[in-house]
Amino acid sequence: xxxxxxxxxxPTLVSLGLPGYYYFHDEVFAHEMRxxxxxxxxxxxxxxxxxxxxxxxxxxxxxxxxFVIRNACGxxxxxxxxCRHRGARLFEGMGNCSVVRCPYHAWTYDLDGQLQGVPQVHxxxxxxxxxxxxxxxxxxTWGGFIFVNCDSQAESLMSYLAxxxxxxxxxxxxxxxxxxxxxxxxxxxxxxxFIVENYVEDYHFSTVHAESLHSYDFPRIRxxxxxxxxxxxxxxxxxxxxxMYDAMTWEPQRLSYQGYIFPNLMINTDLDHxxxxxxxPLSPVRSCIEVLIYQTRAQMEAFxxxxxxxxxKFHRVMEEDFAVCRLLQANxxxxxxxxxxxxxxxELGIAHFYTVLSE
Length: 359
Ligand code: FES
Ligand SMILES: [Fe+2]
Fold this sequence. Notes:
The structure is a single chain. The chain is α+β, with helices and mostly antiparallel strands. It contains nine helices and 19 strands. It has helices at residues 5-9, 26-34, 157-161, 164-168, 192-199, 205-208, 297-302, 307-329, 348-358, and strands spanning 42-46, 55-61, 64-70, 76-80, 94-96, 100-101, 108-109, 115-117, 136-142, 145-149, 179-188, 222-226, 229-235, 242-244, 248-250, 255-261, 265-269, 274-283, 286-295. The chain has a seven-stranded antiparallel beta sheet, with no helix packed on it. It has a seven-stranded antiparallel beta sheet with strand order 11-19-18-17-16-13-12. α5 (192-199) crosses α8. The protein is globular and about 75 Å long.
């Protein structure tokens, strides 16, 4: 049960949305980590980043450290990044290994997580190695993206995605062929939910991004919901092929297929690249946003990207969004904080997000 100090003293000024303490309270955050972030499918990377047996990557799923590794048969396995001896972290970052070897006392596991080696094994007279393995998590892929889920009872990835893949397949580039060409991250003093809410509404575009996203045809942006997710189609204005900030190339007859896959993934297609934002809540009031830029081979040849220049240009839009999210975060302790009305159509994604959270 949530302790709500603020609510007990706050007058009932608001009827919509989440109370302010949802954006800073430790208990709410801990509850979200146990529920939302532990039992949903979340993207942790690309299959092409793990081409060979023994290749691994690590990730946090909420507050759960996991790693994904390609086993000797070439299959992906997801496991908790926790040694079964006394719980040490096994891996950091990415790499390749022939066996999983704990850096603390050197217990080793095969690429399927089965305990293999225990130094000075005579010190463990009761240990039956065959019964000890790293705890596994679910792993599956779509379009080259690797998704994991800590909940062994969870529905399948395709069921969870609820038609989102069919929506993305309208993009004219093969999703499996995307390779990372640039990436960077932000750590912002913002609760993760404000970042989502900002992403799934376009009502702010005409004030916040009037210049930076001027090639978007704001009135014709459409948001639809599917499952827990939001699909956002963005048409361009009728100008000729042009460059928006010299970062995003576009042409008027195209649509940008954008959207939010609950809870940690935002995807945006453009003529010359796909950008992906991966969200990681660090605390009730701190979030990491990883920006990943992908291109297919054809896009790399047609639209070569200088990662540093690209990041510099892209950064402007991100900063515009973070700046307004900080305005919300700055007021969550106010007795007057709240939502009076949500715009129809333009803030539909927020209403959906509240519904998903409440469920
Ligand atoms: S904690 Fe891993 S071997 Fe001891
Ligand atoms: Fe924005």
